[in-house]
Amino acid sequence: MAAAMVCQPIEEQPQCGGSVAGRSYKPQNRSMTHVNLMNNYFNPNSVYTEDDFRRRIRMRCHVFKRVLYDVHHINPYFQQKLDRVGRSGFLLHQKITVALRMMAYGSPADSMDEIHGMSKSTCLDTLAEFCNTIVQLYKEEYLHKPNQEYMDWLLHKAKDRGFPGMIRSLDCMHWNWKNYPTRWQ
């Protein structure tokens, strides 16, 4: 006869509650997720190489560091602060990585909880702040109306890749899609 398992009560820790009334708090080790991120990608002798970084974050590490520096100095949201219950907030690298991963992979905000320990609402706030800051920072340099020379270059590039007239036809309705869902036809 198997011995019955008895669950011993554990010492209860006080519940802080979420930062919004009615929401629960899930304890996350923010410092541990930050240390893991730094050891994986940014510290000397990182686990992953520059190529791994580029494949996973979808940009080169030096570009990431430039964006990190620029965003940090423009938007106070990306400076580490204490949260509403006095715990240290997320660090800059964590916030930028979450925003970029959500954009690079189209990841839902609630999927960031497991790896980065960041709640859905924090991820969405971070993504919105990041996007607004990037537009503010780089609008003049990168988000300008293209001139004719640039348009010609883009059309030539698209034609070389098999997409002639791509600028004029952004919806690409003239291309056949083998696996196009029948309910959309």
Textual characterization of the structure:
This protein is an all-alpha fold. It has two domains: 30-142, no CATH class; 148-184, no CATH class. Helices cover 49% and strands 0% of the residues. It contains seven helices and no strands. The protein has helices at residues 30-42, 50-57, 61-74, 92-105, 112-116, 120-142, 148-160. Helix 3 packs across helix 6 and helix 4 packs across helix 6. The radius of gyration is 23 Å and the shape is globular. The relative contact order is 0.09. The model is unreliable at 1-17 (pLDDT under 50).
Keywords, separated by commas or semicolons:
185 residues; mainly alpha; 2 domains; 7 helices; 0% strand; disordered N terminus
